[in-house]
């Protein structure tokens, strides 16, 4: 269930703000993800923005010059009535669940970004269909515990998969860190923004990538495994 907690530092060192998704431009990606997740699409002079009941539901579509070159290190899992439903919106099947023997179908969005589709019965589907955000990790326990400390929740899991639940302001179920053998090599095409004090996050082990300047008013940081995130000053109460 979505929370309406005010952004701030009630727990941990930061609080969830929203997601950001890189795109090559145009409205195709936003117009796919909005109905796939049960959000509203708002086009603008760039690539648009997805909104829902709270700020945490938001996804900013960020136009970047580079196109996708490797498997997404951060991807979205969705609840859906069927694989065909997502195909009708513009997704493609990469690996059917029947082939893998798993409970989900691996698909790609209109720009090739991977996603996992979990087919649900109609009575189990809500309007908001974002299930969880999955992050590849070389050491999932370590990075999950780091983010748990930052966001003020306990990391849970074992061996190759760890997760965070109950994050204030984050409307979907889990932030999941799963083990992969390969290290991060390029900038993530999906990242998240938080409210917090950059100095506290740097002291906790984050790395500074970019300071505020004439073009941006926030800090761009990276977690201990190199996953980019943006840190915004908490709004005035």
In short:
The chain has about 240 residues and is α+β, with helices and mostly antiparallel strands. The chain contains five helices and 16 strands.
What features would you describe in this structure?
This protein is an alpha+beta fold. The protein has a single domain, classed as 2,3-Dihydroxybiphenyl 1,2-Dioxygenase, domain 1, CATH 3.10.180.10. Helices cover 17% and strands 35% of the residues. The protein has five helices and 16 strands. The strands form two sheets. Strands 2-3-4-1-13-16-15-14 form an eight-stranded mixed sheet. An eight-stranded mixed sheet has the order 6-7-8-5-9-12-11-10. A hairpin with a 5-residue loop joins strand 15 and strand 16. The longest helix is centred in the middle third of the chain and has 12 residues. The protein is globular. The relative contact order is 0.20. The N terminus is likely disordered.
């Amino acid at each position: 269930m979505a929370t309406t907690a005010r952004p701030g530092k009630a727990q941990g060192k930061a609080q969830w703000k929203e997601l950001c998704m890189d795109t090559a431009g145009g409205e195709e990606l936003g117009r796919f993800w909005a109905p796939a997740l049960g959000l509203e699409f708002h086009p603008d002079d760039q690539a648009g923005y997805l909104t829902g009941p709270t700020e945490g539901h938001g996804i900013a579509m960020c136009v970047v010059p580079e196109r996708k070159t490797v498997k997404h290190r951060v991807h979205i899992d969705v609840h859906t009535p069927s694989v065909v439903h997502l195909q009708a919106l513009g997704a493609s099947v990469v690996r059917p669940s029947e082939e893998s023997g798993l409970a989900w179908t691996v698909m790609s969005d209109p720009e090739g970004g991977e996603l996992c589709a979990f087919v649900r019965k109609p009575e189990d589907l809500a309007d908001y269909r974002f299930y969880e955000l999955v992050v590849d990790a070389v050491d999932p326990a370590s990075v999950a515990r780091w983010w748990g400390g930052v966001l003020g929740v306990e990391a849970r899991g074992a061996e190759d998969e760890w997760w965070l639940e109950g994050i204030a302001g984050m409307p979907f179920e889990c932030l999941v860190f799963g083990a992969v053998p390969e290290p991060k090599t390029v900038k993530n095409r999906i990242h998240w923004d938080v409210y917090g004090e950059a100095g506290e996050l740097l002291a906790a082990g984050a790395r500074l990538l970019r300071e505020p300047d004439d073009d941006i008013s926030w800090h761009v940081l990276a977690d201990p495994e190199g996953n980019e995130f943006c840190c915004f000053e908490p709004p005035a109460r």
